[in-house]
Design brief:
The chain contains three helices and no strands. By secondary structure, it is mostly helical.
């Protein structure tokens, strides 16, 4: 019976060990089970090959095309910007030339206007000078006439006054003598 007990104990120990082994397998991570490594490695390689194929045939060419388009667009934009920069410099130079030409034209117009105004002013001044000279000559003639008239009037008044004085003093004046005396006195 000892052998039977011994066998029963051995069977119980073996059953317990098998149950413990199954419990250990079900309690642990299946990825770490060495028995499934070849299967896991196979699927890993298949997955990597599929990912490589998808990336190399589909994703990377699209990304490369987008990058090439972007690089082309950037290069085109830089070229266009350089062209616009040159056009802007040309436009600025043309603007500066037009501005300088406009200023020169304005100076020319101002100089012509000044010359014309000066010519008109000189003509008006000459006309005014001529008019003033004519009026001055006319005034001088009038003054001369007035002076001559005044001198004659003074002579007449002087003769009359001298005749009256001589008559008041009781004498009779000779006209020729009075005229000679007044003429001598007026001449100095």
């Amino acid at each position: 019976m000892a052998t039977e007990t011994h066998e029963a104990a051995a069977d119980a120990a073996h059953g317990a060990a098998t149950a413990a082994g199954h419990a250990a397998e079900s309690a642990g991570m299946p990825q770490l089970d060495f028995a499934t490594f070849p299967n896991q490695i196979f699927w890993l390689l298949v997955t990597l090959v599929v990912i490589y194929w998808v990336l190399s045939r589909i994703a990377l060419p699209r990304i490369g095309a987008v990058l090439a388009d972007r690089q082309g667009t950037i290069a085109g934009d830089l070229s266009a910007a350089e062209d616009f920069k040159l056009k802007a410099k040309d436009a600025e130079a043309a603007y500066e030339k037009a501005l300088a030409d406009a200023r020169a034209q304005a100076q020319k117009i101002v100089a012509e206007a000044r010359a014309e105004i000066q010519k008109d002013l000189d003509a008006a001044t000459a006309h005014a000078d001529a008019e003033i000279a004519a009026r001055a000559a006319e005034s001088e003639a009038r003054i001369g006439t007035i002076r001559a008239g005044a001198l004659e009037a003074v002579e007449a008044v002087a003769r009359d006054a001298a005749a009256e004085i001589v008559a008041a003093l009781g004498g009779k004046a000779d006209e020729k003598a009075l005229a000679a005396a007044v003429d001598a006195r007026l001449k100095g």
